[in-house]
Design goal:
Blueprint: E1 3-8, H1 17-27, E2 33-36, H2 38-44, E3 53-56, H3 60-69, E4 73-78, E5 83-88, E6 91-97, E7 99-104, E8 109-113, H4 117-122, E9 131-133, E10 138-141, H5 145-151, H6 160-166, H7 170-181, H8 188-196, H9 206-217, H10 223-231, H11 234-238, H12 250-260, H13 266-271, H14 278-287, H15 292-303, H16 313-322, H17 325-341, H18 345-360, H19 370-375, H20 382-397, H21 404-408
Helix pairs in contact: 7-8, 7-9, 7-10, 14-15, 15-17, 17-18
Length: 411
């Protein structure tokens, strides 16, 4: 199949003047260019496009020369593999020369540039990612990707095992795209090839692994993808922390998110698959090279267990003041899942009210500073530190109600 005669993309992003300017530059003097991959896929599925990437018959050096001649910025982001980032009026577009793989080692590829759209399509990973559209919205499909878009099947292009040997990251991409776009069961041949090639994942950088896992966990409902990753042994390979804990909480967690209208939260979903142990979280965060923010959140969750659902609001606010509030919220949300599984509806409802209170709560500011004690004649040092702590404890116990004057009046 080539051009889809009856299919035309009419999305606003395609008609954007900046993108059309880029088409003008690339399609002049015998050049050709088309939007490729995700933007086309999402448009055909009625979903918004995030990044708009183009492919062209022009060599990367020619792309750079044309952009600069037109007064626009060209960034050689991956020029050895044919990719140039065009920056026009502040908008960035990746432009990649058509290519085919000459040699692959499971992580890197040696490519040959060309002008063959079919060859370029066949080097891609999944059929739903292998479509193109021109500047007028005409869609070109050389891999039967449109059929799989309609049926919501996620399939490798050609032989699945061959695609995986070319780049083992495609194992994780298979599950990521199934989470986002697939229905029913995963493609049997793809699933079998992923299971057979799971040892290849050991050769990937942990940064790439976490990037794919995080994207998968950001899908609206990654539950079936997580289940199949666990069934094939792939989840335990990339996240050994799930071995003795599992994914049983995920269905209830996803239902809770949907019921409450909570946005997809990859870290919260990860918490549903691992044990809340500080040492384990420290080890996992270091191994997976989490960001400082991600590491802090995972450790705070493990270090701040949920309170009892019948805690008083006064005691709960004191607990929040002494704790990491986000860690408490994460723990309470997971406890709601556990309570619902055990059919403790009243306790689950009470815990949800605590979550809602915590999300609105503003941390009060302790009204006393060291300079206030110095003004009363106290010298800086350990004794002042102890005094400040004692006054803060008294303030907390008062429900944060003692005024500055009342605190300074405490001997």
């Amino acid at each position: 199949m080539t051009e889809l005669k009856d299919i035309r993309i009419e999305d606003a992003w395609l008609k954007d003047d900046t993108l059309q300017t880029l088409f003008d530059i690339l399609c002049a003097d015998g050049g050709d260019a088309r939007v490729a991959g995700g933007a086309v896929r999402n448009a055909l599925m009625g979903m918004p496009a995030s990044d708009v990437d183009l492919c062209t018959t022009l060599l990367p050096q020619v792309v750079v020369k044309r952009l600069q001649a037109a007064g626009h910025k060209a960034v050689p982001t991956g020029i050895d593999h044919g990719t140039v980032t065009a920056v026009i009026e502040g908008q960035a577009f990746e432009v990649t020369t058509l290519r085919k793989d000459i040699e692959t080692d499971g992580r890197h590829a040696v490519v040959e540039f060309g002008t063959d759209w079919v060859a370029d399509a066949n080097r891609r990973d999944l059929t739903i990612n292998g479509l193109y559209c021109d500047r007028d919205g005409r869609v070109y499909d050389y891999v039967d990707g449109y059929k799989d878009i309609l049926s919501k099947d996620v399939r490798f292009i050609g032989d699945a095992a061959t695609r995986i040997k070319e780049d083992s990251l495609r194992i994780l991409r298979f599950f990521r795209f199934f989470a986002w776009y697939g229905e029913r069961r995963p493609d049997a041949s793809g699933l079998k090839a992923c299971a057979a090639g799971r040892e290849l994942l050991a050769g990937l950088s942990v940064e790439r692994v976490w990037m794919e896992l995080k994207k998968m966990l950001s899908a609206s409902d990654p539950g079936r993808a997580i289940l199949w990753m666990r069934t094939t042994g792939i989840l335990g390979g990339v996240l050994p922390e799930t071995h003795k804990w599992g994914t049983d909480a995920i269905p209830g967690l996803l239902r809770l998110e949907q019921d409450q209208g909570w946005d997809p939260d990859p870290l919260f979903r990860l918490m549903g698959m691992v044990r809340p142990d500080v040492t384990t979280m420290q080890t996992m965060s270091k191994r997976m090279t989490f960001s400082n923010k991600e590491t802090e959140r995972m450790i705070s969750w493990a270090n701040n267990p949920a309170p009892k659902s019948d805690i008083t609001i006064s005691d709960f606010e004191k607990l929040m003041y002494k704790s990491n509030v986000q860690g408490l919220i994460d723990s309470m949300k997971l406890e709601i899942v556990n309570l619902q599984v055990r059919e403790n509806a009243d306790e689950a409802k009470a815990m949800l009210k605590l979550v809602e209170h915590a999300q609105k709560w503003e941390r009060p500011v302790f009204p006393i500073q060291g300079q206030d004690l110095i003004a009363k004649g106290m010298q800086a040092g350990p004794e002042m530190g102890e005094k400040l702590q004692a006054l803060e404890d008294a303030w907390i116990e008062s429900g944060f109600s003692l005024s500055k004057d009342a605190l300074l009046g405490i001997s």
